[in-house]
Design goal:
It is a single chain. Helix 1 crosses helix 3. 28% of the residues lie in helices and 20% in strands. The protein has a single domain, classed as 2-Layer Sandwich (Peptide Methionine Sulfoxide Reductase, Chain A). It is globular and about 40 Å long. By secondary structure, the chain is α+β, with helices and mostly antiparallel strands. The protein starts with 8 loop residues before the first strand and ends in a 15-residue tail after the last helix. The strands form three sheets. The protein has a six-stranded mixed beta sheet with strand order 9-8-3-5-4-10, with helices on one face. The chain has a two-stranded antiparallel sheet with strand order 1-2.
Amino acid sequence: MLGALGVLAWQLPLYGAEAPVVIPPPAVDNPKSAGALQTAVLSGGCFWGVQGVFEHLRGVKQVVAGYAGGERSTAQYVTVSTGRTGHAESVKITFDPAEVSYGQILQVAFSVVHDPTQLNRQGPDEGSQYRSSIFYSDDTQKNIAQAYIKQLDQAHVYPKPIVTRVDPLRGFYAAEGYHQDFLVRNPTQGYIAYNDIPKVENFKRLFPDWYSEKPVLVNPQ
């Protein structure tokens, strides 16, 4: 691992993290309501930081780092790192729809997790495995994602167009155990301290009401 609406503004980045952006909530979203747990799969650069942020989102019950976009047979870190498998480093977020909406998850992703205008890269990491993607599991998720991207582009939230792909989820494959909860277990590791801890701090700063101090972990300590 190596504007619009009168309220939008670029914020100064912390350390190596991409600059967080204050953005409006999605105009199209599913209402919060009691029901079975749901999942969201998305990618936005190295999955260490993506997982680390979403583990602090209220209403999220689990975040698993893994691979999506390619075949099961190539879902290994060393193979995905070649950039030739079709996979993106991704996370699978299991959430309570009564506490957090799918649109809110996308709002966090677009605001503090990554820069959705960067094509096939994020921060110091380059390659299609670090692309910005949303993998939808049904038409509702597809419509919310596409509508939100259109909304943000039309509002000129970012200085460049959003390049986030919206693709059907063909499969999600959990990453190797040493990748899970990597940020929580290695907060002083150089890459994490410089690139990813600032994303968590940006999340806490921009979304204090959504931030949970205690992260949900794949492997509770």
